[in-house]
């Protein structure tokens, strides 16, 4: 039998609602009994608390049922207390009925809004799976882990993007950041990802690949612009890398993107010196220098977007990525992402002001790749994650 995550979530929600439902029902019964036993203490006006409490966690049908129970209790109290003026009971009855109707309407509107939000999440998740395919845990000489944090609450993706593909030259990696954030930036992110995959499929050299992406992005963004928009405002920063299978180097081209961090055992973190070119979409057919950096087995390269280093704390201080990541150079990619997610959100107070993406590329030793295979990588990933979750 195939496990369905949504079924378990629905079952837990159903159990939670029915457990909470005992509280308003018990409240109605208790108030009615006390009011009938001790008429000198009129508690029936408090019956409205029950439907109000139900509306905070249940749907309109359940709220209507508890409201009806409260109205019945109010009627029984009126019948059992003939000494109290009829007009008082009428006022209490009408007040309870009107408030109950309003609470049912509120509950229906809230349920409709929740359904709309759930649909938005579903569409966003489906878009993410199609647009930004999950990165493999292992490809060529690399172990990979990634992290994506969207700035908008209901968005799973935004203006940041990444992709990995394999070619005859080695593994190629893209991380980029288009202008804008959240859902409105998805269109331009899709263009950049499509240009990367198309040029990678043609097996172009890395510098020619950047030029092809530049032309593709410029051509397509021009088609997207309307007469009211300034075409010069559409651009994207990008970092493209090529990791050869057998050479202990990495080739990098930066198009206005923040430089990566090179992590080595012993808490060593360095910032490679790159020769960046302007962002994509600014200068068509411009030159894109190619930098070659050492990347030996055991090294980890951390790629990120500016949403990470521009995250601010309560005192408006930027997130010190290089300083923080130096603590975790001994950890694997999965554990590293776990640490960074927790630390970055804690620094920003739980919410980022811009989309943020990170990729950790760890070069594995050749003998480990050939002799241990995929099972070893999965075992190591589990050990890294378990280490990260320790206090």
Structure characterization notes:
The protein is elongated and about 95 Å long. Strand 1 and strand 2 form a beta hairpin. A six-stranded antiparallel sheet has the order 1-2-11-10-7-8. With 391 residues, it is of the alpha+beta class. Helix 1 packs antiparallel against helix 2, helix 5 runs antiparallel to helix 6 and helix 9 runs parallel beside helix 11. The longest helix has 46 residues. Helices cover 48% and strands 17% of the residues. It has eleven helices and eleven strands.
**How would you write the strand order of the largest sheet?**
1-2-11-10-7-8
The oligomeric status of these chains comes to single chain
Number of helices: 11
- Main sheet makeup: 6 strands, antiparallel
Taking pLDDT < 50 over at least 5 consecutive residues as the criterion, the unreliable ranges are 1-9, 226-232, 370-385, 387-391
Number of strands: 11
Order of helices and strands: HHHHEEEEHHEEEEEEHHHEHH
Measured distance between first and last alpha carbons:
36 Å
Described by the principal axes of the CA atoms, the overall outline is elongated
Mean pLDDT: 81
Strand-residue proportion: 15-25%
Helix content: 40-55%
Protein traits:
elongated, 11 helices, 5-stranded antiparallel β-sheet, disordered C terminus, single chain, 11 strands
